[in-house]
Predict the structure.
Amino acid sequence: MAEDSIITDEMKAAIGVESEPSVYEIEKEPIRRWAEAIGDFNPLYRDEEYAKSKGYRSIIAPPGFLGNYAFPVKAGAGPRRGFSSPFTRMLNGGNEYDFFKPVQAGDTITAVSRLAELREREGRLGKMLFIINETVYKNQDGEIVAKARGTGISY
Amino acid sequence: MADQIYWEDVDVGTDVTPLEKNPTPQQLVRWAGASGDFYQIHYDKDFALGNQLPGIIVHGALKSAWIGQLLSDWVGEKGMIKTYGISYRGMDVPGDTLTCKGTVTKKYTEGDEHLVDCEIWLENSKGEKTTPGTATVALPSKG
């Protein structure tokens, strides 16, 4: 690796380390607000009786809703990170989701994240650090409902 | 809502029904509130310019949510999104017309599931694919 690599030993040591589990209650109103914010008026995300008529226990969360919990209310500090980036600016580079089970209001979701990969690249905005995080979401029955992989670009 | 689509209805090359979005700065603020992402590049022009950006830009995760809507609307209530992933290659700005699109690239079965792979993307009003990706969805079968 080049001598001027921005990936330090501290960063390398953070790769693969799992976060403490974060536990979230899935509630109806945040789902409705989220769906309305994107302009998605699917009744499955709004109308509990309708969702029940389709076999769900309550309204369900739209795809990607779980990504919200990268921004927890409690800390207000954004995604947790086990190292410090040399840069302060951030862009979202990409998101991937795998879905296994519907997420319904009333579920309790436990999320565990880990830093999967770090890459550095020279781009239009100068030196950039690609930070790839993976999160596994389980419901109250211990079933994996979704997995997410996100790429943050620090520059 | 559109009629339920079935696996037998699609072939390689079939288009995913497009979804058009016309984001405003207000929608970005609304999204910030709903998602908890209050990074200033999405609503504070001076801050965005100071970050070497062209102005306030649309949240990547909002574009991801729209792609989720594109796929959910298309597969209908009997279908299921198995996976999708997108890359934010180009920035999108409020005031532009953004369209989520997709096309079927593969059709197959796996176990008892009837699956379809798609190329998906979001394009701006110039037709530039700012946000390309792929998806796999399960569709109901008439069989």
